[in-house]
């Protein structure tokens, strides 16, 4: 697999106008399915409740444009799908420039860029335009047309589960709701597509749960439907986005900041010798907001190139196919493959007993209780305390102050007495 394959898929998906619902999402998932035949596509009806939210109406758009007073088309949705405020209601009327200005969006300090603007949850309409073009507009009547539709429909998402020897899971999430932006949008689902193919060729220890969802509302619905199994089984999770440019690396850890997945990621980034900036969870902004929110608290982090909202091209037409590169995508693909490989190699013990096990009936503690009688079993109890699925064997050995060779012997003893479970390759 190479960055070229990922880039080629990005180029294929580039023209599609995506949103949090609609035919653009379906078309995108359909093209991804040609690479991942096992991907299941799910439809969630408008009005479905999910925690504090509900699935909105479905939005689709056929065309949109503005004609100036001379009848010239100055804004054309077919030239750039960023020209229309995402989720705009239908419009077909003439309007004075003064009134039109309140429906125009531009960026003064990026005068050549078209911004990306949305209005998902309040009915509105608008156009996005470069500031240079906006300043050239002259007084008069403008014809504005948005041929769109808001209706009761569905939210669409994709899910693929690769079964492993263990029910313990690695969770991978990416989003498919932005129109034509390369790094912030397409790099995530395209890299995830080929990472999934990489995993499919393995005989994995762990089960892999991979989802392609609309950002925010998609992840919130998915959590509302699958929270119990996710909380019980997820060992490590990754929210994949912004992985296509050539800049230095960015790492956004989980809310906890020191879970197994966080330590693993730092280990891999250090091993590869890459320069990276670690951000605070206070600087979150993608679906890790949902996966690490109170009451959810999943072990999910993000490894990116340029972190969203830190590069000038972010959420503008300048985040295009020229901003990303095959080399940038290849580097990100390799790091995520390294992470998967390391998870598969790690021995991560899970204590099988609730509360403290009765060690005496297993011959691991004297049956006569007196002062210091528990000393002989302390090393086993210490091991079990940290065998919570959040530490690998090497980390446990350090936590209980024993060498790795001794930790292996303890592991074998506890496994023999059915107190510990772990998956070997």
Radius of gyration: 26 Å
Order of helices and strands: HHEEEEEEHEEHEEEHEHEEHEHEHEHHHE
- What general form does the structure show? elongated
How many domains, as an integer? 3
Q: Name the CATH superfamily assignment of the largest domain.
A: Zn peptidases
Strand-residue fraction?
A: 15-25%
Strand tally: 18
Q: What is the end-to-end distance? A: 24 Å
Structural class: alpha/beta
Can you list the strand order of the major beta sheet? Answer: 1-10-12-11-13-16-14-15
Query: What is the CATH class of the largest domain?
Result: Alpha Beta
Low-confidence stretches: 367-374
Mean pLDDT equals: 93
CATH topology description of the largest domain: Aminopeptidase
CATH architecture field of the largest domain? 3-Layer(aba) Sandwich
Tell me the helix content.
Answer: 25-40%
Sheet with the most strands, sense and barrel status = 8 strands, mixed
Task: Give the number of helices.
Answer: 12
Outline of the structure:
The chain has 425 residues and is α/β, with parallel strands linked by helices.
Commentary on this structure:
Helix 7 (260-272) links the parallel strand 14 and strand 15. The chain folds into 3 domains: 3-56 and 154-345, Zn peptidases (Aminopeptidase, 3-Layer(aba) Sandwich); 58-151, Glucose Oxidase, domain 1 (3-Layer(bba) Sandwich); 350-421, no CATH class. The protein has helices at residues 3-13, 23-33, 97-101, 131-135, 182-200, 217-233, 260-272, 288-291, 326-345, 378-386, 393-399, 404-416, and strands spanning 40-45, 49-50, 53-54, 58-67, 73-76, 91-96, 104-105, 127-128, 141-151, 154-162, 169-175, 207-213, 234-240, 249-252, 276-278, 300-304, 350-351, 420-421. By secondary structure, it is α/β, with parallel strands linked by helices.
């Amino acid at each position: 697999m190479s960055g070229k394959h990922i880039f080629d898929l990005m180029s294929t998906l580039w023209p599609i106008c995506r949103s949090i619902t609609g035919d653009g999402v379906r078309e995108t998932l359909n093209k991804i399915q040609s690479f991942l035949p096992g991907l299941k596509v799910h439809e969630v009806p408008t009005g479905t409740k999910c925690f504090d939210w509900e699935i909105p109406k479905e939005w689709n758009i056929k065309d949109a444009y503005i004609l100036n007073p001379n009848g010239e088309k100055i804004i054309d949705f077919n030239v750039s799908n960023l020209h229309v405020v995402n989720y705009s209601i239908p419009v077909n009327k003439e309007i004075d420039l003064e009134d039109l200005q309140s429906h125009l969006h531009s960026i003064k300090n990026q005068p050549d860029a078209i911004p990306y603007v949305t209005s998902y949850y309040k009915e509105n309409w608008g156009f996005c335009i470069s500031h240079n073009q906006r300043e050239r507009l002259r007084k008069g009547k403008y014809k504005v047309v948005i041929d769109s539709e808001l209706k009761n429909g569905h939210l669409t998402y994709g899910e693929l589960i690769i079964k492993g020897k263990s029910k313990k899971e690695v969770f991978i999430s990416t989003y498919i709701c932005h129109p034509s932006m390369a790094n912030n949008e397409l790099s995530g689902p395209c890299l995830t597509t080929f990472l999934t193919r990489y995993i499919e060729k393995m005989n994995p220890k762990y089960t892999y749960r991979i989802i392609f969802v609309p950002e925010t509302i998609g992840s919130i619905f998915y959590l509302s439907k699958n929270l119990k199994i996710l909380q019980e089984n997820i060992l490590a999770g990754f929210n994949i986005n912004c992985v296509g440019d050539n800049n230095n690396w960015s790492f956004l850890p989980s809310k906890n900041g020191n879970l197994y997945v966080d330590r693993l990621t730092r280990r891999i980034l250090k091993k590869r010798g890459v320069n990276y900036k670690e951000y605070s969870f206070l600087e979150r902004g993608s679906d890790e907001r949902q996966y690490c929110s109170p009451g959810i608290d999943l072990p999910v982090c993000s490894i990116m190139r340029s972190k969203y909202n830190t590069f000038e091209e972010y959420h503008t037409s300048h985040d295009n196919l020229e901003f990303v590169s095959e080399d940038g995508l290849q580097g990100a693909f390799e790091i995520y493959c390294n992470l998967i490989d390391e998870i598969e190699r790690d021995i991560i013990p899970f204590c099988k007993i609730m509360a403290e096990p009765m060690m005496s009936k297993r011959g691991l503690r004297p049956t006569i209780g007196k002062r210091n009688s528990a000393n002989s079993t302390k090393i086993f109890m210490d091991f079990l305390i940290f065998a919570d699925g959040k530490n690998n064997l090497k980390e446990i050995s350090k936590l209980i102050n024993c060498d790795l060779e001794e930790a292996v012997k303890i592991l074998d003893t506890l496994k023999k007495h059915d107190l510990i479970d772990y998956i070997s390759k």
